[in-house]
Amino acid sequence: MKNCLPGMINACILCIYPYNISIWWVLEDRHRCTHFPPGPARLPLLGSLLTILRQSNLPALALAKLAKIYGDVMYAKMGMMEAVVFSSHDAAKEIINHEKVNDRVIAGFIADRNMHQNMGVIFSVGDLWQTLRRFTIRTLRDFGFGKTASMDIVINEELTKFLGYFNKKFNSSRTNQQQHRIMVISPELFDLSTTNVLWRLVTGKSYELGNTRLKHLLKLSHKYVSAATNGGDISFTFPLLCDWFPEWTGRNRQNKYIQKICQFLRETINEHRQIDSYAGDPQSFIDVFLAKIDENPKDPIFNDDQLIYTLLDLFQAGADTSSNTLAFALLFLTLNPDKQAKFHEELDAVLPTDGVITAEMKSKLPYCTATLFEVLRFSSLAPLSPNREAAEDFKLRNFIIKKGTSIVINLQAIHFDENVWKDPQVFRPERFLTKDGEVDKALAFHCDKAMTDLLVGFGGGRRVCVGQQLAETSILMYLTTFFRYFKIERLAADQEKLTPSLVPVLGLAYSPRPFEAKVIRRG
Ligand code: HEM
């Protein structure tokens, strides 16, 4: 018995030791978080990840469910990442323009993408961000971006090409009748064309839709996105795993693709530099930036690397977002034939039988415009706005938000808040119309820095989306043109190989799953 004693004591210590550590950790954690917003229970190392993952595999949905329990300002620890999540319109309004949260989180795969430096517009901070953002908005505006008349010309030219391209696809698709085709609907139908609109405003050049260079750029960007989704979240929650297993987490692939995209952009810039008149007679955003570089070759902001990253930002933020939204619109209008019928009815009543659709016609197309707004709400394309970071400790409501905390604004939760939208799970463009059938300006007439309107798909505050006006105008013009000539119906269940689904694919933004539908040419 005497001999057994030390062994028993050791065994007891071994059992008690982890128990003690756990107790210590819980007390310590509780003490540290006393003044933080409420949130789900935390485990050592994992934080609340298991609780979050149990809710849904879409982070925005999971966080929205937890916000119903813990409140619209919620603290969530996810692995190594500490975040405060804002899930209602009121809460978002309190934070989106807060002077302490203008900066983005530059960590994980974002830091890799930006070469661990302050680069470009989307993921940059401080004076550099302000200078580049202001320059970008002003210069793009000078080239027609956001100016209705010039955007109209560019979009209409690209739409003509798009219709030619779509008609070819239509004619070569599966059919058993002259006017009907069975087609796969996905963002790919639109992405070359919508990228062309953006790229033309940025580079001054128009590409044919089959252009191999633009296709190559889009392909690289898609490969980058799919590599990022594998390791994207891990790179924030468990960054060390990306250091230890760069192949498995997708980090090596992401870095490879981003380098290739940057190389492509460098070549594009050099092509512009070879045209002597770029400074004297600038024809594009790139030309004006190059002229600015020439003014002071040692300028820390206006240099080749910053130009590359600004172009990368415009491309990544603008190329897929418009085509994904268009594919979502086709999905929602296929699943809601009564709404599609109303869309057609308004188009037929308002639009002349020939001639082009212009952005000016928006005011005559309230139902179509309301449909666009409902598509933006229902798709919530960027469900969690790119994270901001608290620059210092500060107080909000009665809570302390610590320096370095990620500020997550759950745009999807805001768009599906039952207290605001009454029946948020229903696709109903009419919600954006007044009793007189006009677009309800109180709900969605934005570019609103104070974020008073309830539709917040483009974020808000000082970091509100730079491309909002281009995106809204071009999406509306593409939608109205498409539905002027075509109708989409759901296939019978036994014919549907790819069923329409409301569950999105999560990349850097949401995209709809490809689905098969009957596309009918209108008489
Ligand atoms: C349906 C289309 C689009 C959606 C839903 C969308 C959404 C967003 C959102 C949510 C943000 C973050 C705003 C915030 O932090 O409060 C953002 C930022 C940004 N977007 Fe868009 N966007 C779209 C199209 C575009 C287009 C076409 C461009 C190209 C010009 C663009 C360029 C940018 C840029 C440069 C930023 C960074 C702004 C900054 O950090 O200062 N976006 N966008």
TrEMBL record:
It comes from Orchesella dallaii. The chain crosses the membrane at residues 7-27. PROSITE patterns: CYTOCHROME_P450. InterPro entries: Cyt_P450, Cyt_P450_CS, Cyt_P450_E_grp-I, Cyt_P450_sf, Cytochrome_P450_fam2. Pfam families: p450. This is Methyl farnesoate epoxidase. Gene3D superfamilies: Cytochrome P450 (1.10.630.10). Keywords: Heme, Iron, Membrane, Metal-binding, Monooxygenase, Oxidoreductase, Transmembrane, Transmembrane helix. The keyword Protein biosynthesis does not apply. Belongs to the cytochrome P450 family. The lineage of its organism: Eukaryota, Metazoa, Ecdysozoa, Arthropoda, Hexapoda. The keyword Membrane applies.
